[in-house]
Amino acid sequence: MLSGYPKKETPIFSIDGRESTPNRVVRKVTGMNLPRFPFLIKMLNAREWLSVQVHPDNGYAKKNEQKEPWGKNELWYVLEAKKNARIIDGIKSISSKKEMIDKLEQANNGTKEPLEKHLNYTELKKHELIYLQAGKVHALGPDSVILEVQQTSDLTYRLYDWGRKRPLHLQKGSEVINYRYPIAEKKNNPNQYRNDYFYFLKKKIDEENPAGETINGFSVLITLTDCLIDEFEVKQYFPIIVPHHHKISITGEFIELKLGRWWERHGEER
Q1: Are residues 228 and 166 in the same domain?
Q2: Which of the residues are catalytic?
């Protein structure tokens, strides 16, 4: 939906129709000297289990992945979920890197016990929010539609792929897992959620409020219904960038995303 990852950038358009890319305007819209646009936003709709994976934190990424300016923390917001929808949101009964590598090698070679018994499965419900901090093992299953908000990074270490023959990253993956706190944080139908990386707000402004809700940038809005932004009609599930020092008026249901405190320490104010 919105990407500033190099060579995979999505086009963006100003209100007067001029085309650009997120990284060309990152300082202008965020007000910070960031190396790339901070938010990577996707919509996921899996037909089968996606790979079991983990992302590194900022320190590990800076030390071991020189082309990346930071690691990858992410939020999942559940847009739709059928009755049996599930995710993997952590591990259990594995407490060390060595033990993790042993279990992964056995599972990927088809020997001894399957990895599934060491994975934490959680049922999904519509409107839930899951914070997948770097170091949390996770995977998305079928029968749900997820809004995924990430730090803009391509750092994904694949641990297990359900028998598919894609490359795995067992060494790096086992090094970055959070063994002390292995389960992801989950919130049921939050209207507000904040941590060091993301400030998430869900709002519904009905048409009885003629002035709408005023949004001050820098923000990224994701419309959950058809919305009216200033005098423009915007369809459902559409990303809108509100530059810093700008404001807009919006009517409808939407998610507002702002940067958490971590970015203030890593993006010099202009």
Answers
A1: no
A2: 158
